[in-house]
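User: Continuing from earlier, I have the next pair ready.

Assistant: Great, send them over.

User: Here they are, in order.

Assistant: Folding the first of the pair now:
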Amino acid sequence: MAPLGGTPRLVLLFSGKRKSGKDFVTERLQSRLGGNICAVLRLSGPLKEQYALEHGLDFQRLLDASTYKEEYRRDMICWGEEKRQADPGFFCRKIVEGVSQPIWLVSDTRRRSDIQWFQEAYGAVTQTVRIVASEQSRQQRGWVFTPGVDDAESECGLDHFGSFDWVIENHGNERCLEDQLEDLLEFIHAKL
């Protein structure tokens, strides 16, 4: 049975490494579809909000791509893992509450348990999208390998997931990215 959100026509679960462009791609798709049709949902939102409350931190600063967030990232990952071990669907349920748009883009799917929860809750309308970017492209976007972060489940949990429904290559070639997004948009429009 679906939780407290509306009934979506399509749920796209985006995953990829840090600085692969997950937010960039989902925001671009939303801008093309419109906010009344498409909601971008972030599993990290309720995680960061609860973490900030429990640790006396600035929630808004944890949402941006700042050094402030990076300072707390490792501990936040551990804290989030403890929450998920106690209740694997905790953050998934939080982000769908009250969502009424027919298209949902979950921009930061990181674990098999996230995918499993959405597949169990929403069935056949759930699709997986992997964003792939070379290390060089990610480095140009500011990525630097961080032990305890880039080798943790939050970054590697879906590396050997199997086959994704969609794979978007985001190596910095705008034309190539645009062609792939057009294919995905055509699929999304067919679900409306």
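And the other member of the pair:
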Amino acid sequence: MCRPNMSQLLQAPALWIYLLLPSLLCENMRCYYSPILEKEEKFELIVTECPPDEMCFKAEGHYGNYSALSARGCMAKKTCSRVHEIRIKGIVYTMSYGCCDSPYCNTCPGVFVQPLFITLTLMTVAVMAGIL
């Protein structure tokens, strides 16, 4: 087995710094934004910077037992975990919100990304690639 050179050893930490450094330098959190959309509609997520007193959120709108709507963005800490009703095209949906307090944590459905998970993923990739 050949030994990795210095540039190979620095790839994982460099990627980790590239992903997390912008969020460490800003005092405002960055989150993904998408308007309230029907679940089947595709929308390219937009990065947005939240005001200081807000967190990232993901919302889901239900019509009965059917999950029909989704949204992402920034929300005041005091309004997180609230449920309210909205009317769209004459239909009343129950919107529920889940908040998270780390940058870009509202990316994937049902998953809030933490720096630890990013680090573990990068280390796993490095080990599998034979860098470490």
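Worth noting for the second one:
The mean pLDDT is 78. Residues 6-25 form the longest helix (20 residues).
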